[in-house]
Design goal:
The complex is a heterodimer of chains A (73) and B (624). With 73 residues, chain A is mostly helical. Helix content of chain A is 86%, strand content 0%. The longest helix of chain A is centred in the first third of the chain and has 37 residues. Chain A starts with a helix and ends with a helix. Chain B is built from 20 helices and 12 strands. In chain B, a hairpin with a 3-residue loop joins strand 8 and strand 9. In chain B, helix 2 packs parallel to helix 3 and helix 16 crosses helix 18. Classes of the chains: A mainly alpha (73), B alpha+beta (624). The interface between A and B is medium-sized, with 16 and 21 residues.
């Protein structure tokens, strides 16, 4: 039973930040596309902007991994 | 680094201004800017004649560029010839206008023929299906109708046939042909005398007749279709003739080849006149020169124009505008200017981050990918790109960045003992020398390494911020210095709390933090604590290096295991290669994006000061 809760916790730890990242990127994407239509030279900046919310997923991944490692998984 | 610039003032007799401008254009390293205003000086302006010439030159340029865009550049591989000493503006203007008009006519005719061909091609399927009939010609006294039935209306044929049987007593011929899109074309041949009756029948049965294209309306189908076939056959020859005319025209345009360079140069000189200032008898020109070129400017201007023209260097206190920025770095770092160049230029007098990017970007990339196999593939791609690119092009810079990243990937691959994931361990008995990224315990150490690297990177950014702000904004420099110190103390406190450092250090470090905190608020205001927290968050953001690295190695290991799990050796190898290919592409894309992000957001945010002026030397025009 304990392994179920550990796995669930790790899954939640990565799932919620990833959903938040997806939501943030869904807002950035159209704005980025509109910016690129007017200023194609912003492409690098736009890609970096899109990568900014990924911090949440990455930190979620780190937390999930710690949960698994602490539990000896 | 940012090249050191000097502001030079050129003074001379007014009559020598045109010659001086020509000489400066030949030298090609002075960035002209408006001189300081003074009561005795009048800003340069163009005479009505010069204004007319300027308008004429812009028209010629527009005509030549339009004609080149429509017809193509003559002798594309050859460099345009040098402009003549006395450019024939009037002859060029006439020739350019004539060429442009002809090119536009050719273009319009080619476009019209293309559209006509596309339209007629739509009827080609019908013509092919019933071609024999129309080539032989329909017998006199017979009228033809073409009808299209939409997909799924095939049953209407039988209903129409039944109606026609009753109305015409089998005195007709009905042929069908299915089209590629699913529609069914019916060709109905009836005696002319019964045409009116048939048309009524077709209207009542609500089937759609094929309309004839423009230019053929009002003709009977039997007349129009053969003519359409003939026209379709004639169009390619006409298009070829137009292409030949375009080619001949392109050759004739060779006479205009020196025009763009001459026009741009003359327009540049006219712009130079606007940037000058003059009194009743003298002129003044000011501009920026790389400091190393200043002696050259003095000597060569005296040689070219004469001793009457004097050059003086203005002291920094007399600078009325910001100096333009030229990034100049050692050969090894130069390709990384491409990565810095995606952001606005740094301001003059601040720090060029290129050398730091050149060290840390491949380092982060190598840490994330860290695989000998992927490193070798990337090095190969980099070498191929380098061989296929020309010097000083973005592609050459990308190839050299790729080679740099590949080297770090190879080094970390050896340190982590990875060759396409765990294949190196299985085949070549490779062993991790520093960290085993597949081992849970080492993953924590890897995380610690990445965050420590983040600490170094961010503190370095803060230190550069101190250096950058020291000259102009002392208070800001103090604030950044205090931030850097507090970040180091926070790290020390954490390490002492975790007993990595002696535990006895904890209390003095915390006391030092409590003392520094009000000083930080005093230096940077109430926003300082928020900034400090944001900096701590930025350091933790370097955990992405570990996350992406671990994901990369895990995917590589999974690729090997899945390939081994497939029964057939050949299928297993193909499957494994495909999986590795996907992982390789991910391993190239994500580390690049996140490596850039760590620089642009976490590192540059501490010291980078954008808004620099681009260095645009006054020189002869050259094609890019």
């Amino acid at each position: 039973m304990q392994i179920f809760w550990i796995t669930l916790s790790a899954a939640v730890a990565i799932a919620i930040p990833t959903l938040a990242t997806a939501w943030a990127q869904s807002r950035i994407g159209p704005a980025a596309a509109a910016s690129l239509a007017e200023k194609p030279e912003l492409s690098t900046t736009v890609i970096v902007m899109l990568a900014i919310p990924e911090t949440m997923s990455i930190l979620g991944f780190v937390v999930a991994m710690f949960i698994m490692l602490r539990a000896g998984g | 680094m940012i090249l050191r610039m000097s502001r030079a003032r050129v003074l001379g007799p007014r009559a020598l201004l045109p010659r001086t401008l020509e000489a400066l254009q030949d030298l090609g390293f002075v960035h002209l800017s408006a001189p300081v205003s003074a009561a005795a000086l009048v800003r340069g302006s163009l005479t009505p004649r010069e204004l007319r010439l300027e308008r004429q030159l812009r028209r010629i340029l527009d005509d030549v560029e339009t004609a080149v865009a429509l017809v193509g550049r003559p002798q594309a591989s050859a460099a345009p010839p040098a402009p003549p000493a006395a450019p024939p503006w009037t002859a060029w203007a006439r020739s350019a206008r004539r060429t442009r008009r002809e090119a536009e006519r050719l273009q319009a005719r080619t476009q019209a023929l293309g559209e006509e061909r596309a339209l007629l091609a739509k009827y080609q399927e019908v013509m092919t299906a019933f071609g024999g009939l129309f080539q032989r010609g329909v017998a006199p006294g017979v009228r033809a109708y073409l009808v299209v039935l939409r997909a799924g209306q095939g049953t209407s044929v039988e209903r129409l046939r039944a109606l026609l049987d009753v109305a015409l007593r089998k005195d007709y011929e009905l042929r069908t042909h299915p089209l590629a899109g699913g529609e069914l074309v019916l060709l109905l041949l009836v005696p002319v005398g019964k045409a009116e009756h048939v048309e009524r029948l077709l209207a009542e049965s609500a089937v759609e007749q094929v309309p004839l294209p423009r230019g053929y309306e009002g003709q009977s189908l039997t007349d129009a279709l053969p003519r359409m076939v003939q026209r379709l056959r004639a169009i390619p020859a006409e298009l070829e003739e137009l292409a030949a005319r375009r080619s001949r025209m392109s050759e004739r345009m060779a006479a205009l080849a020196p025009a763009p360079a001459a026009i741009h140069d003359r327009l540049g000189q006219l712009e130079g006149l606007r940037l000058s200032a003059s009194s009743a008898h003298a002129f003044v020109l000011e501009g920026w020169v790389p400091t190393t070129n200043l002696p050259d400017l003095i000597v060569r201007l005296a040689e070219r124009v004469g001793p009457e023209v004097a050059v003086e260097e203005l002291a920094a206190e007399q600078w009325t505008a910001e100096a333009p920025v030229v990034l100049q770095n050692p050969r090894l770092f130069r390709p990384f200017q491409l990565l810095v160049g995606t952001l606005p230029l740094p301001r003059y007098g601040t720090i060029d981050p290129t050398p730091f990017v050149a060290i840390f970007f491949p380092l982060f990339f190598g840490l994330m990918v860290g695989d000998v196999g992927y490193g070798l593939v990337l090095a190969l791609i980099g070498l191929v790109l380098r061989l296929r690119s020309r010097p000083s092009t973005p592609l050459r810079a990308i190839s050299e960045i790729a080679i740099g990243c590949a080297l770090f990937t190879l080094v970390f691959g050896v340190l982590f003992g990875e060759f396409f994931g765990d294949l190196g361990r299985r085949w070549f008995a490779m062993r991790p020398l520093v960290l085993d990224r597949e081992e849970p315990r080492d993953i924590v150490s890897f995380l610690g390494l990445c965050v420590a690297l983040g600490l170094v990177h961010v503190v370095l950014g803060l230190a550069l911020g101190v250096a950058s702000a020291f000259r102009g904004h002392r208070r800001q420099a103090v604030g950044r210095g205090l931030s850097a110190l507090m970040i180091l103390l926070i790290a020390a406190a954490l390490l002492a709390a975790l007993r990595v450092l002696p535990h006895a250090l904890l209390t003095p470090v915390v006391v030092a933090l409590l003392v520094l905190f009000p000083l930080l608020v005093a230096a940077e205001g109430l926003v300082a604590p928020v900034e400090l927290l944001s900096t701590v968050g930025n350091i933790l953001s370097y955990a992405r290096i570990m996350a992406l690295g671990t994901a990369s190695v895990m995917l590589a290991v999974i690729a090997n295991r899945l390939a081994g799990a497939v029964g057939s050796l050949a299928v297993g190898v193909v499957f494994g290669l495909l999986f590795h290919l996907v992982n390789f592409m991910l391993a190239m894309f994500s580390p690049t994006i996140h490596g850039l992000r760590l620089h642009y957001v976490e590192f540059f945010g501490r010291f980078y000061s954008p808004g620099g002026v681009q260095y645009r030397p006054f020189r002869h025009w050259r094609t890019t």
